[in-house]
Amino acid sequence: MRYVSVERTRDGMDLDPDAYLRQLPRFAESLPEGARRFATDPGHYDFFGRRCVKDLKPARLASGETGGSRWLELHLRHNCWKHEEDLTIRYSGVQSLAIEPADQGMDVAQLRDVMLDEVLPHEHGCRHEIVCLSGTLVVTSQDLAATWLHADCPEREPSS
Length: 160
Fold this sequence. Notes:
Blueprint: E1 5-9, E2 12-16, H1 18-27, H2 33-39, E3 57-66, E4 69-77, E5 85-92, E6 96-100, E7 114-122, E8 125-132, E9 135-141, E10 143-150
Antiparallel strand pairs: 1-2, 3-4, 4-5, 5-10, 6-9, 7-8, 8-9
């Protein structure tokens, strides 16, 4: 990633979105509408917030074509101890998709938990990079639409 820092340390992972958050006001208006709304959501990098992307779990990736334009849909499952919703990101006008390590093919579940992500302007619209425990997913598209949907979480204890 260009601004967001995700580094393995002896003690675990060091995650720092601060440089990205400092730069975001400079390029936010250059992002397509959906990407801008997702990237600038106040809860996006709030590690204690319910809509922080950290700890979501990539579940599946669907793709198709509509009217000659390629789309992708990434489904991310909640973490019962942190989230109350699943996140679906639909990418429209997809130019490219890269999953590393490449031997995982389209099985995004093998990427494991999301550490952090970064959405940047791109000549085709936007570039969304998601760093996970076991790999990285990068999508370049015209735009994206992020939708949070309530998830049942039987592991979570009811509040009193």
